[in-house]
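Structure ticket #2291
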Amino acid sequence: MRTLPSVVEHLVDVAEPSTSSPSGRRSVGAPSSRPSERALYAEALVQADDLHAALVSWALEVAEEASLRVGVPRGGTRWTADGGDPVGLAGRGATRRVVGWLVPHLEWVATRSWAPVMLEELASMSSSASRRFPVEEPQRRVTDVRCPGCGCLSLVVVQPAVVGADRLVRCTLSACGRVLSEDDWARARRWAVAVATADAGEGEAA
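Resolution: structure written out below.
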């Protein structure tokens, strides 16, 4: 449940700049108003809308069945013309507010017969969106370990795209292009530490 806001916000980020700001966020130089109905609506934003709308629908179910006095936050949600059903995001951070409202009631939710259906639906939608629009970790350039193949400071660390997989460390020079295994990467780091230690010792002796 607590990961849903991050998933929705990632989907919105993926959608930009394909669309202006249907979620209330605008790119640099873009107008502050929401786009017209004819504007291109990115698929990532459709998934963000669907996930947010499903979450709000379940939160409304909780509020109604538990007869809660304080209602579900509605300001960041778009609704059908008659206000009957949630249809998607109307403001960035809306999903985070709904989850913040819902979390204190999760113990009560767990006692309901429909709780497994709720969790299965939200988990399935979240997983589907994450698979279709995965978070791409940026490459991290290594500035203190030389490539064991060419001796240059040309290594980058690429985070695994699949949970549990090894990191990929490779040389960015086309003339080398060496890919290091986890063992190769560990040895290269140990060697860099040894060289740095030896250099420091020589400096102190001088």
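Closing remark: DSSP finds six helices and six strands in the chain.
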